[in-house]
């Protein structure tokens, strides 16, 4: 049960967060951080068991009739993600307490960030695919709340809606993929699918499943062309940006692809889709990052590039590529979380995030400066940082000599060099050089603002010294989860000139150094190129949404025109089509039944119904037609009585009587009992639709009558009516017990119709009263 509590604890904390804010005041961040800190400590306690390749699993029955459980499990992959989410989340909560100090809605923000944390933890711990989907969508909803937290700004509202649309749409594709995958494998749990991995690739629906899952993952992890929402999400407060980019939502797609590698990976389609889109995202993210001047935007686009790098490595799927992806995943979480907090501290201490308007802050923000340098070392992949280990391993995976490996190696070198430039710019440009005036006097951040960035930056550098622990506690169990077989990682800190990966690293540093030296010129060239192109994916999204709104408006005007006559006509035409089309397609039209032998009184009932029909058709006024229509209902009630259903007959008599009386009263009160004037064309049209629908109902009833009668429900009602419902009249028991909700619904409809009729009558009466009052006033005025 501990695993289930891990996923649910942040939601419980979110409930009391506003109250904690009221009572704890400025220390609310530290108090609430106890929850993620405890979760992180729990994950650390799982390491010995997970290192032995054990799996901790717990589940509760959710929808047992369909075999769906609310289940969770912890293996190497979920442990790494869970530790990142809770560990970094601890510092984000503390950071939020200081960054949003004095904000009138800080308590609400704490609730949102804790719900976001719980959603992500539930996602990475979920075993049942439907449990996973629930938390998958919760991350979209909570990120919408966080991105649009400052809802008074139009840009924040737009960014929140855009993120919700893109990730929510991807979630629907993922749901379809998971359902199809469940049907193929016969399992709705990830552990069950992993146990039978290898058979999905041979299924004819494999490509469909792959595309659906990939669309869901790409939307969440912002891969080209679904990447545009991520930079716009920087409209959120900096704590959200730091958390979202380092350890949470954008990593969800990466987690899904890593988790599905044993189930869907190992094919050419998997390889080319992930490597091509991942490589394109890496290059685009790196180039766009160098082009920016806003610190958060620079970091946002490097996150885009990093996500592309991870997807590319997962697409390769070799042991070295998987280990490189795991190392880079951890390194990126550490240095990106630290750098985002650094950017927030700079903004908090100077009033600006524009890198061209910053300089000489080293004296005023010394701790932030040192923290930025440490984080940039890991981001650039310099020894001894964890980023160096990740870069060496990913380069080792691509130095095998074949042309795809070499092509993608070049992509990695360029992409890593571009991200190195951004790290160095953020580490040095705001702090060195001449002092630049800022909106307010620069000052160092408080301990709450600094502690998270310091710890994450130091860990990112020093982690490279703990390679033995990383091999056994992180890489072996996590790599085994993704690679689906035992992995014996041998990562160690070395600088062997005989290793081609080292020369790839040197090439990265040289290229990054040159680009850093000419950063301003490169930025200007990229901006001119962007202006020359003119079009962006973000503008394409706006055009698509505008076109969708115009299309919806056209369809609404076409179908929702306000004319009841056309609504009814369209409804009955569609219903007739629904009846006839399937019967004609599968050639299931019923045979004409033999003419039954009827007694004289049965013929009499049918004759009365026929006369009633003739009276309806020849009626001169609506009121006459309504009264004649009641003859039909009475005839049906007589037939029910003749065939041994007195209860049903009595109900029919009551319904018909009330219907005729109410409609007659309404017609006379609202003066709608005039002659129904229709031209010949309208009469033929309405008559044809009525015949089509009426004959369709008759055909459908014949189909039902010609099927074998299943007495299962009959026997069930007969056996249970008295002992369970304590009623001897089976029909009444069915109405008031077995289908009580249905009967309640029918009564509610009748009540709503009655209230609507009363409202219409009252409106007509009020209108008449006002007209009489105006006439009396006019007469009185003329007399005066």
From TrEMBL:
Domain named NADH-Ubiquinone oxidoreductase (complex I) chain 5 N-terminal: residues: 62-110
Cellular compartments per GO CC: plasma membrane
Membrane-topology descriptor: Multi-pass membrane protein
A Pfam family matched in the record: Proton_antipo_N
UniProtKB keywords: Antiport, Cell membrane, Ion transport, Membrane, Transmembrane, Transmembrane helix, Transport
Entry superkingdom: Bacteria
Residue span, MrpA C-terminal/MbhD domain: 608-670
GO term, biological process aspect, one: monoatomic ion transport
Main location per the UniProt record: membrane
Transmembrane intervals: 28-47, 54-74, 80-102, 109-126, 132-149, 161-185, 270-291, 298-316, 322-344, 365-386, 406-428, 449-470, 501-519, 566-586, 598-616, 623-643, 649-667, 688-707, 747-765
One annotated GO molecular function: antiporter activity
Name under which the protein is recorded: Putative monovalent cation/H+ antiporter subunit A
The MrpA C-terminal/MbhE domain, residue ranges: 684-762
């Amino acid at each position: 049960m501990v695993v289930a509590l891990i996923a649910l604890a942040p939601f419980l904390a979110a409930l009391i967060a506003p109250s904690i804010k009221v009572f704890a005041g400025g220390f609310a961040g530290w108090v609430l951080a106890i929850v993620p800190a405890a979760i992180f400590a729990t994950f650390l306690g799982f390491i010995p068991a997970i290192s032995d390749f054990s799996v901790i699993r717990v589940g509760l029955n959710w929808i047992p009739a369909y075999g769906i459980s609310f289940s969770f499990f912890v293996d190497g992959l979920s442990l790494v993600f869970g530790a990142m989410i809770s560990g970094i989340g601890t510092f984000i909560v503390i950071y939020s307490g200081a960054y949003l100090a004095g904000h009138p809605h800080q308590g609400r923000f704490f609730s949102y960030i804790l719900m976001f944390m719980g959603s992500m933890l539930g996602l990475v711990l979920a075993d049942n695919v439907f449990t996973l989907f629930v938390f998958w969508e919760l991350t979209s909803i909570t990120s919408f709340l966080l991105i649009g937290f400052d809802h008074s700004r139009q840009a924040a509202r737009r960014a929140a809606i855009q993120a919700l649309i893109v990730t929510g749409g991807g979630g629907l594709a993922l749901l379809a993929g998971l359902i199809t995958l469940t049907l193929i494998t016969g399992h709705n749990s990830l552990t069950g699918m992993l146990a039978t991995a290898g058979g999905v690739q041979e299924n004819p629906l494999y490509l469909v499943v792959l595309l659906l899952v990939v669309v869901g993952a790409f939307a969440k992890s912002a891969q080209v062309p679904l990447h545009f929402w991520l930079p716009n999400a920087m409209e959120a407060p900096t704590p959200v940006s730091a958390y979202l980019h380092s350890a949470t939502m954008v990593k969800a797609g990466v987690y899904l692809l890593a988790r599905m590698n044993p189930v869907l990976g190992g094919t050419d389609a998997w390889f080319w889709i992930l490597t091509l889109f991942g490589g394109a995202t890496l290059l685009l993210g790196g180039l766009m990052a160098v082009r920016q001047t806003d610190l958060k935007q620079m970091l946002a686009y490097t996150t885009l590039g990093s996500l592309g790098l991870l997807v590319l490595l997962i697409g390769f799927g070799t042991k070295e590529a998987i280990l490189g992806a795991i190392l880079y995943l951890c390194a990126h979480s550490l240095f990106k979380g630290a750098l985002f907090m650094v950017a927030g501290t700079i903004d908090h201490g100077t009033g600006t995030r524009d890198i061209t308007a910053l300089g000489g802050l080293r004296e005023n923000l010394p701790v932030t400066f040192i923290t930025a340098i440490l984080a940039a070392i890991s981001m650039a992949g310099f020894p001894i940082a964890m980023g160096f280990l990740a870069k060496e391993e990913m380069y080792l995976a691509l130095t095998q000599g074949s042309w795809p490996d070499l092509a993608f190696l070049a992509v990695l070198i360029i992409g890593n060099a571009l991200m190195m430039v951004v790290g160095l710019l953020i580490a040095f440009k705001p702090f060195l050089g001449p002092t630049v005036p800022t909106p307010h006097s620069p000052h160092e951040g408080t301990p709450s603002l600094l502690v998270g960035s310091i710890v994450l930056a130091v860990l990112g550098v020093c982690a490279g010294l703990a390679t033995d622990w990383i091999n056994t506690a992180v890489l072996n169990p996590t790599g085994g989860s993704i690679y689906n077989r035992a992995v014996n990682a041998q990562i160690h800190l070395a600088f062997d000139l005989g290793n081609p990966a080292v020369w790839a690293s040197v090439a990265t540093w040289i290229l990054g150094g040159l680009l850093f030296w000419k950063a301003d010129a490169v930025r200007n060239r990229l901006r001119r190129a962007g202006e020359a192109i003119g079009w962006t994916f973000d503008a394409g999204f706006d055009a698509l949404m505008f076109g969708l709104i115009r299309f919806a408006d056209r369809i609404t005007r076409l179908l929702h025109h306000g004319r009841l006559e056309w609504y009814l006509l369209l409804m009955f035409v569609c219903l007739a089509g629904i009846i006839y089309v399937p019967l004609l397609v599968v050639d299931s039209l019923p045979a004409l039944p033999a003419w039954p032998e009827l007694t004289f009184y049965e013929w009499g009932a049918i004759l009365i119904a026929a006369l009633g029909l003739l009276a309806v058709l020849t009626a001169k006024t609506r009121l006459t037609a309504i009264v004649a229509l009641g003859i039909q209902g009475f005839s049906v009630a007589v037939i029910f009585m003749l065939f041994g259903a007195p209860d049903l007959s009595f109900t029919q008599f009551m319904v018909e009587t009330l219907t005729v009386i109410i409609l007659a009263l309404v017609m006379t009160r609202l003066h709608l009992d005039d002659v129904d004037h229709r031209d010949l064309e309208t009469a033929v049209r309405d008559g044809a639709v009525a015949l089509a629908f009426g004959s369709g109902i008759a055909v459908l009833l014949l189909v039902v009558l010609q099927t074998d009668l299943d007495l299962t429900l009959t026997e069930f009602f007969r056996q249970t009516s008295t002992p369970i419902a304590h009623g001897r009249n089976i029909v009444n028991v069915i109405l008031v017990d077995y289908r009580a909700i249905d009967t309640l619904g029918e009564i509610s409809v009748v009540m709503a119709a009655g209230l609507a009729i009363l409202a219409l009558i009252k409106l007509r009466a009020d209108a008449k009263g006002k007209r009489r009052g105006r006439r009396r006033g006019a007469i009185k005025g003329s007399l005066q």
